[in-house]
Known about the structure:
This protein has 188 residues and is an all-alpha fold. It is built from 9 helices and no strands. The chain has helices at 12-32, 38-45, 49-55, 59-84, 87-103, 108-112, 122-143, 153-163, 172-186. Helix 1 crosses helix 2 (38-45), helix 5 packs antiparallel against helix 7 (122-143) and helix 5 packs antiparallel against helix 9 (172-186).
Amino acid sequence: MSDxxxxxxxxxxxxxxxxxxxxxxEVVFGRSGVDAPAKEITDLAGVGVGTLYRxxxxxxxxxxxxxxxxxxxxxxxxxxxxxxxxxxxxLTRWIDxxxxxxxxxxxxAAALHSGDPAFDALPGYVMSRLEPALGxxxxxxAADRAIxxxxxxxxxxxxxxxLSQPVRDTGAGFNRRMVALLVDGLRA
Length: 188
């Protein structure tokens, strides 16, 4: 079989188990950090530890998969928000979602900067998924004259990321307030 062959499709039960593991790991990582015991994740997912290791042989594989899953959900939310809200409101809600994602990932930054080669491709993946989603939201809001038109998606992604970093003796509410100030500065 060549390396270019399409990956095998998962059986329905295996796909359900994978989804359950990703959802459970997201919850557990948010509550206990990325070093939480595997048993805590598998108990919440309703699967055995062997199932976890069959899908994710290394902890880094699971952390990467959870983060990609969350990034995909955030990127995909842009279209739904655009369909439900005026452009400026859709942009604000999407940035709020991104801020929440970044502010609640206990231990993720340390894992990503750990030197583990499993994480080397993540920054590129994040930008490839979030830049187009944010770009569409920015373009719509600028066309509606709700925000200034000179803001690039990359700039805003970096700004939100930096403002979402934990600050000693503050909670995630502080990060949300800082990002809200930034978003207010975008308004035309």
